[in-house]
Amino acid sequence: MTESGEQEQSRWVTTVIMSTALQNHEISTVLQRQQHRVRYSESVETGSLIFSLSGVAFMLADTQDLLATGEEEFFKRIQKFINIHRNSFLVLSAALHGPEEWNVMFRIQRRFLGSNLRIIPVHNTAETVKLMLTIAKITSKPRVDDIRYKMEVTKAQIIENSPVWKMLQEYQLHCN
């Protein structure tokens, strides 16, 4: 990647709306250090972050807390979250994703199968922030249009250079 491309990536800044429960969370501090505009709201579901310009929302959850507090209450919060947000991600954090943690994730997946919820396991704050910013960045309006265009051009090139396509064109010439 060129130096200017790296500088362009590092300058990407967005607004993040976070629940007030995350005000003293390490993720809030990391986002602010990276110059993102962080706003807090009491109306946002507890433990949630919304990247409004990208249209994505993340709900943070610790698997150990979930195991301790019980699933049904947590499932109600998830249901409310996915009813509000079209592009929703559940970020499940655990220092180690062992059998218990994978079992929790499986139960959540089974419960919300067919919904718009995507579950992402993470291990630490740095990983969490990196994945959220990556998803938010590639789904932001100018980027998503650029990615769609590049995918269409790539698809056209693949079809055009396909041996099957060439064979069909030759076959069509011989039939005429």
Question: What distance separates the N and C termini?
Answer: 48 Å
Whole-angstrom Rg: 21 Å
Biggest sheet architecture: 6 strands, mixed
Q: Give me the count of strands.
A: 6
Shape: elongated
- Low-pLDDT runs: 1-9
Roughly what percent helix? 55-70%
Secondary structure tally, helices: 8
**Roughly what is the average pLDDT, rounded to an integer?**
84
| Structure classification | alpha/beta
Strand order of the largest sheet: 2-1-3-4-5-6
Could you explain how this protein is built, in words?
It is a single chain. The chain is of the alpha/beta class and 176 residues long. The chain is built from 8 helices and 6 strands. Strands 2-1-3-4-5-6 form a 6-stranded mixed beta sheet, sandwiched between helices. α2 crosses α6. The chain is elongated, with a radius of gyration of 21 Å.
